[in-house]
Amino acid sequence: MNFPKAETFPQSIMRERSMGPNPLKLCEELLALADIPVGSVVLDLGSGAGLTSALMARECGFIVYAADLWSDPSDNMRFLEGCGLTNRQVVPLKADATALPFAHGFFDAVVSVDSYNYFGRDPAYLGTHLLPFVKRGGELLFAIPGMVRDCHDDLPACLLASWTPEQLEFMHDIGWWRENIGQTDGVEILDMREMSCTREAWADWVACDNEYAAGDRAAVEAGALDYLNTIAVRLRRR
Ligand SMILES: C[S@@+](CC[C@H](N)C(=O)[O-])C[C@H]1O[C@@H](n2cnc3c(N)ncnc32)[C@H](O)[C@@H]1O
Asked: What is the pLDDT of residue 1?
């Protein structure tokens, strides 16, 4: 796959600000599944250090609300300004996905890269805490780190080389996510599929020079990517 939007960002910036498998490539592949118009107001949910927000604002022309719990919105704003963006294009804020500070029906779309599995594993989450903030007809796009097949009962050694069974509880297969999301009224599942760029995105991540990437390297080198995937989810609010 080609990544013309992701590749407008220097590799040094991607490596400095990624918090997991290359979010720029995941975001670009995810957006290609839908047709979100220029000028749409988009919630980047669990936006981390702002890479995906920068891509969506600068390369897609969306107005982006970059909502994240752990990162510092001031640091993200300086980064976004460095990308040539202004506060008319991106609004970084500290927010908890389970208590979003917006008006109901505010967003045209939601995009969430490598974050939804932190808060969305509770099947009540989507209907209670996220869907009300999306306009009727609006789309939600998630790229979720997952498993090819759930193997929590018999975890392979390669996964345990970097992660504990508790950490691996954050990862599930497509069937598990379909069951989780399918319990929510008022939303239509348009698409759920394995993403193509998983191996490439992980290769970019484990090449990063930070302790988290270094910690994940052992599993990847031991063959973890035979068991892991990334699940793209495309939903529409009815
Ligand atoms: C693995 S990082 C991914 C960040 C970014 N999307 C990226 O791909 O680089 C997971 C992100 O989820 C966010 N997160 C976890 N729980 C959250 C919550 N309850 N509300 C908002 N964000 C949350 C964290 O702040 C963190 O930035």
From this structure: 86
